[in-house]
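User: I've been trying to design a sequence by hand for this structure and keep getting stuck. Would you show me what you'd pick, starting by listing the structure so we're on the same page?

Assistant: Good idea, let's start from the same input. This is the structure you sent:
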């Protein structure tokens, strides 16, 4: 449920929490990681001290998937952010604060690369005029057309809250988004018993990339969990080759094989099916710009 580096909060079958450490000689299962156990992992463990509610983790069950980022300190190692995730949800806003499309697209690309379904939620509907709402609807239509679940919400008016609750039901979801987009307020609306302070779900909101922060999982309802993980926002693409990035854009992936060159980067190569699609309007310019900035190694997350 929570990882603090050397201790792990493990939830037993009855829902009780035990503080566990790793067995001394722990195998890393050939995965080069700085932290062998991630929030979301299922583990074999045993009681060490019943009174103090302490235990020892002996082994990790095989993972369905995981999200990792490059370790800050060990270049060849990854840092696991979460495991066994059903969906990655990006909470965005078009104002107060504005979420850039580059940030949304980058997180969707990372989710695709780990084979985790991506979801985009545009929050704070109550703040928008008709013009902003019309633009936002274009974005919702765009992401829906690419196969992503995308809808709008407002904690103030209740719009989309039921859809949000249904989306989370029975799943383990990783929640991400800039500080101030209303993640905590949205979660509090459907799970008031959690009493999350605003920005508590975003424990990483004011921490830099290089500080040690802790991932945590919250239970919203039976079999329904959200994971807040530090570092999800800082997920870099440094592990990806330039040639690989296009594979994680569904609309570009569809056209791979139709370009003249098999290793086409869709930048200035002749007879490029992707550039033709951008010109024809079948690939959105905003998405193509996100793609180019990722291939160019620019940081388009703001």
């Amino acid at each position: 449920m929570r990882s603090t580096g050397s201790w792990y909060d493990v939830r037993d079958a009855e829902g009780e929490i035990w503080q566990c450490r790793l067995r001394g000689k722990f195998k890393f299962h050939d995965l080069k990681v700085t932290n062998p156990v991630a929030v979301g992992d299922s583990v074999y463990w045993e009681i060490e001290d019943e009174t103090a509610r302490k235990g020892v983790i002996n082994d990790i069950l095989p993972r369905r998937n995981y999200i990792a980022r490059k370790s800050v300190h060990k270049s060849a190692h990854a840092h696991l952010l979460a495991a066994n995730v059903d969906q990655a949800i990006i909470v965005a806003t078009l104002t107060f604060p504005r979420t850039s499309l580059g940030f949304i697209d980058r997180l969707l690309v990372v989710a695709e690369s780990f084979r985790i379904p991506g979801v985009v939620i545009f929050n704070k509907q109550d703040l928008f005029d008709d013009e902003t709402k019309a633009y936002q609807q274009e974005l919702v239509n765009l992401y829906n057309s690419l196969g992503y679940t995308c809808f709008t919400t407002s904690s103030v008016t209740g719009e989309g809250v039921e859809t949000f609750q249904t989306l989370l039901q029975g799943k383990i979801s990783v929640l991400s988004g800039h500080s101030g987009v209303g993640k905590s307020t949205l979660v509090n609306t459907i799970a008031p018993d959690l009493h999350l302070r605003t920005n508590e779900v975003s424990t990483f909101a004011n921490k830099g990339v290089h500080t040690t922060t802790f991932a945590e999982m919250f239970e919203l309802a039976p079999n329904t969990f959200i994971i807040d993980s530090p570092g999800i926002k800082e997920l870099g693409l440094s592990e990806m080759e330039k040639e690989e990035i296009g594979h994680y854009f569904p609309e570009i992936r569809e056209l791979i094989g139709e370009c003249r060159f098999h290793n086409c980067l869709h930048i200035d190569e002749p007879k490029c099916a992707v550039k033709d699609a951008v010109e024809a309007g079948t690939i959105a310019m905003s998405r193509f710009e996100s793609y180019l900035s990722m291939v160019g190694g620019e940081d388009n997350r703001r």
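That's my pick for every position. To get oriented when you compare it with your attempt: Confidence is low (pLDDT under 50) at residues 200-212. The radius of gyration is 20 Å.
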